[in-house]
Amino acid sequence: MSKLYIVPTPIGNLEDMTFRAIKVLKEVDLILAEDTRTSGILLKHFEIATHMHSHHMHNEHKTVENLVKRLQAGETIALISDAGTPAISDPGFLLTRACVENGIAVECLPGATAFVPALVNSGLPNDKFVFEGFLPDKKGRQTRFLALQEEYRTMIFYVSPHKLNKTLAEFVQYFGADRPVSVSRELSKLHEETVRGTAEEVLKHFEAKPAKGEIVVVVGGLIKTK
């Protein structure tokens, strides 16, 4: 029976790969990978010989229609990204939506994603939160910050290392120097680190010690006053 499987892969530590994920990747007809070179290392490690096709942000608009036809013909396909859960700031949404619209079964396996451990590690309220992903680079960036000034929920951002200090400075500017911030980098990897403090304190830390690796930033929401 045709089905699209959304399969999370480790964000760093290969031991986070689940038995079920390995089983699915071995049994499907095709694996769609964001970067076949990166995923090839993972598949070789777990002795997965399933054929791969490239599926990334630059070609997904062109490949969705053909993939839907293959699924309708009875194939089973697994979608993976370079790390973490597909469609979370990674390719995957377009194909998933197309499958849903065409009555094709979609099953997302539970597994690794970077923002959950970063949120829990932060020590900030996690009963309600908003995932912002990557902020706009230029157009719309200021507008987004202005809108988030009134956000009461904890906010989660993905930030590239070379933009971290700029982003932290913007947090100081738009949210205030005392707003609580937690920066987690290289989660599940050898040099995993979480730095917590006010926006100003965390900015000073990374100005003195520039960050490297994959980064998730968690920011406390605006405190309600009576």
TrEMBL record:
GO MF assignments: methyltransferase activity
Catalysed reactions listed for this entry: cytidine(1402) in 16S rRNA + S-adenosyl-L-methionine = 2'-O-methylcytidine(1402) in 16S rRNA + S-adenosyl-L-homocysteine + H(+)
Signal sequence segment: none
Listed Gene3D superfamilies: Cobalt-precorrin-4 Transmethylase, Domain 1, Methyltransferase, Cobalt-precorrin-4 Transmethylase, Domain 2
Annotated Tetrapyrrole methylase domain residues: 3-202
Keyword entries, A-Z: Cytoplasm, Methyltransferase, rRNA processing, S-adenosyl-L-methionine, Transferase
Organism: Flavobacterium celericrescens
UniProt entry tagged with the keyword Methyltransferase: yes
Family: Belongs to the methyltransferase superfamily. RsmI family.
EC number: 2.1.1.198
Gene Ontology annotations of biological process type: methylation
Cellular compartment(s): Cytoplasm
Source lineage: Bacteria, Pseudomonadati, Bacteroidota, Flavobacteriia, Flavobacteriales
Primary gene name: rsmI
Official protein name in the record: Ribosomal RNA small subunit methyltransferase I
NCBIfam families in the cross-refs: 16S rRNA (cytidine(1402)-2'-O)-methyltransferase
PROSITE patterns, alphabetized: RSMI (PS01296)
Biological role: Catalyzes the 2'-O-methylation of the ribose of cytidine 1402 (C1402) in 16S rRNA.
